[in-house]
Amino acid sequence: MKAKIKLAFRIVIDQNSTLTWDKYIFEDTYFEYKIQHQVFDDKENRAKNYWELLAKNQHAERIPFLLSTSVTNYISQLNGEIKSLPDVLGNTFFPIESFKLDLISSNTEDPSKHKIGITFYTPELALIDIIDSKYLLSKNIDPENGLETFMFAFHPQVAIAYYESI
Q: Do residues 127 and 5 touch, judged by C-beta distance below 8 A?
């Protein structure tokens, strides 16, 4: 075993997202954004987009965290797995332990400018090797009698987010 790792998978959701789940998240985060924008905005010198607001009020940096509460029920519907990322055998692979929402952009008057990213993180996995552009992994970090393994092909939206050499 080479290392303990956590993988991260990031999706971007905007007005052009086609999945129903993504559309609900878009609508709920945009609604919540407009509410939070009002809380942090200057009543006399209003900002229209997130970056203007952030330049005027550094406390507006909390908005992405506050938007996270509007997606937690949707995340819980995943039951701890991203089913759209199977292992090389086609089995549901990508277990998720946590997520982080980031606000890419938004505008109180133009929903087409609202864009968020959600990054999902796996629990710790054992990285055993990399073979032919595939991770050889195990969910068992501390083996006593061998390892049950699976392989996951490199994916453009997946990165190693944590690495600890063993």
A: yes
